[in-house]
Design a protein that fits this description.
This protein is an alpha+beta fold. Helix content is 21%, strand content 29%. It has a single domain, classed as Sandwich (Jelly Rolls), CATH 2.60.120.620. Helix 1 crosses helix 3 and helix 2 (24-33) packs across helix 3 (72-92). The longest helix has 21 residues, at 72-92. The chain starts with a helix and ends with a strand. The structure holds N-oxalylglycine (OGA) and manganese (II) ion.
Amino acid sequence: MNIAEIAEHLTRVGYIVLDAPLQKPLSDLLFARCQDDGSARFKAAKIGRGATQKHLSPLRGDMISWLDDTNSSDFVYLTWMEALRSGLNAALFLGLFDFESHYAIYGAGAGYAKHSDVLQGAKNRILSTVFYLNDDWQTSHGGELRLFEATGETIIATVNPSFGTMIIFLSESFPHEVLTAHRTRRSIAGWFRVRSS
Ligand code: OGA
Ligand code: MN
């Protein structure tokens, strides 16, 4: 699917699930980067922002590591996302200004309770992206991403975090949750942002 088709689909539906948008060798490199080697590169994720940040593992159990454009694998991913950013801007006049992104590892037993990616007081996240890095993910492993319509009551999509799958969705329109994973679950979450006013 090309960027114009992605743009059209996002306009019509608000989210899109892509089967294997990246080349397998790149996905393999990203998988290799999404490993907690004990070097403290990965840290427990927090909820909220600034002084209100909370560390509430029952609500959010992942370990995260922000991408680093001086790393060659991260750089290739960020370059791909940059092409998507400029293509979506050209098609949709979204004014997307930058992209922030982190690796995430959910250990067995971890999930992420229903939330919005648009943080209180900071409405600059426009599009959310998640790229999954889990070979041979079975339904019994749990860990699905569930998207809800805006009021948060009705499920509109359930996505298996299977290797190579990417979802892109309008950050403000879809509350979502990560169901408890029963096996280690790896992904790259990211957000296209507009300049905050
Ligand atoms: C997030 C998030 C979803 C997923 O990191 O904000 O909702 O499927 N991730 O990993
Ligand atoms: Mn989220």
